[in-house]
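Model: You mentioned two targets. I'll fold them one after the other.
Researcher: Yes, keep them separate.
Model: Target one:
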Amino acid sequence: MPCYRLTDDLWFPPVEEAEDCGLLAVGGDLSPERLLLAYSLGIFPWYNQGEPILWWSPDPRCVLFPAELHVSRSLRRALRRHSYRLSFNENFAGVIYWCRGLRAGLDGSGTWITPEMRSAYLRLHELGFAHSVECWDADQLIGGLYGVSIGGCFFGESMFSRRANASKIVLVELMRYLREKGFVLLDCQQTTSHLLSMGAREISRGDFLRCLKEAKTPPYGPLVSQF
C-alpha cells in the first residue's frame, strides 16, 4: 500500500489505505486543527526526534471499554491502602514532563514526545481538548496520564509512574470518570501487556471506526470535549 505525503492542505487519506504496520502518511504539521482531524478519523502521530511526522492507524487497535476494566486483587488492596490524592488537569505540563523524562535517554532521544509534540499537546490542553489525570503523594507528582478527548472517546497518549501502581491508579480513576460520563471507550493505540492485564483488548480497525461513530466524533458529531 502507498504511504501518503501530506501537504499544507488539511486532509488525510482513507485509513483503509494504511500499510500493514499501520503507517498511513508522512509530513504535515502538528497544528490543533490537523491533530483533532486526525483523532476524529482514527489516526494519531508517532515519530522520533529527527524524523518527519508519521501518522498511524493500526489494525487491530487496542482499546479499553469502561465496563471491561479489570482491577486485580492486589491493585484493589493498593487502592484501599493508599493515601494518594488524585486530580484532573491540575498539572498537565508536569505529566508530559515526566512521561517524556522517564523514557528519554541521556541525550533526550529515547522518546517520541519531542519538543514539538509537547508544545502541540500543551496547545490542545489550552483549547480544552487534551487532559491529564495526576496522582500525588503530598506535593510530589508520582504518576499520571494524558490524552485527547473528542466526543465520547478518550484517546490515550502516555502515562508514567514513579511509585508502584501509580499509573494503574490513575488509569482506574480515568476509567471511573469515563464510565460516569458515558464515554464509549479509551483508545490505547498500542497494545501492551500492562493494558491487556487491565482489560484492554484488540479490535479491528473497522470496529474501532464504528466505535468512533457511536462516540459521535466528527464528522458524526460536533467537535467538542466532554471531559
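Model: Target two:
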Amino acid sequence: MIAQAKKLVYELLKNDNSGHGIEHIERVYDLAMKFAESEKCDKTIVALGVLLHDVDDYKIFGMQSQLNLTNTRTILDKIGASDQLKNKILDMVSKIGFSKCLKGNRPTTIEGMIVSDADMCDAIGANGILRANLFSYLHGENFFDKNIFPQKQLDPNEYTKKNKTTTVNHFFEKILRLKNLMMTKAGKEEALARHNLVVTFLRQFFEEEKAFDWIVYLDEYLKENGE
C-alpha cells in the first residue's frame, strides 16, 4: 500500500514548485521514520500519513479540497485501505498543519504527532528558509521590508487567506513559533537545532542590512518566548 500510495502522491504533486511537493514529502518521510524509531507506533500509519499530509493542502488544491480531504480519500480507496485504516489516516491528515494548529486542531495519536513534528521541522532550518523564500517569491512578496513589522497575534480565521507579507515576517509569524509546537521528544530535539539556525541567519541578515531596530525586535521576540 505504501508503494502504491507513493506512486499516486508523486503523480499528483510532481509539478508542484511551492515547496510542498515531492522533495518536501521525501524529507518529511525520512524525518518521520527517524522519529518513529524512538516511539512505539504503527510505522505503516506514519508512512501513509506523511505521504498524504499535503495532497489536499489549501495552498495547492484550494480550501474545499482541504475541508473534504478529496484527494486523500481517492488515494486511500485506490490502494485498498480498510475502513479502519482509512478513518485513522483521515483523522490524522485533518489535524496536520500550522493553520489547523492555530485553531487548536492537533493530532491525538502518536503516529499523528510524529507526522506533525516531522512536517513542521521541515519548515525550520536551512530548507525551511529556502522554502519560505520560494513561496514568497512565487506569490510576489518581498523578502524584507524594514518598515513592515510582523503580526504579533495571528487570527486563525484570517491566516489561510492570501494576505501580503514578507519572508522575514513569515519567520516571526510562523517559523520561529514551530519549536514550541513539537509533540515528541525527537521532534523537540530536531526542531531546537533548526530553530537556532534560523535565529542565527536572521541576526546575521539584520546586521548586514544595518537593520538594528530589527535586531532589537528579534531579541525581544525571543525573550517573550522564553529564550
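Researcher: Noted. Anything on target two?
Model: The chain has 13 helices and no strands.
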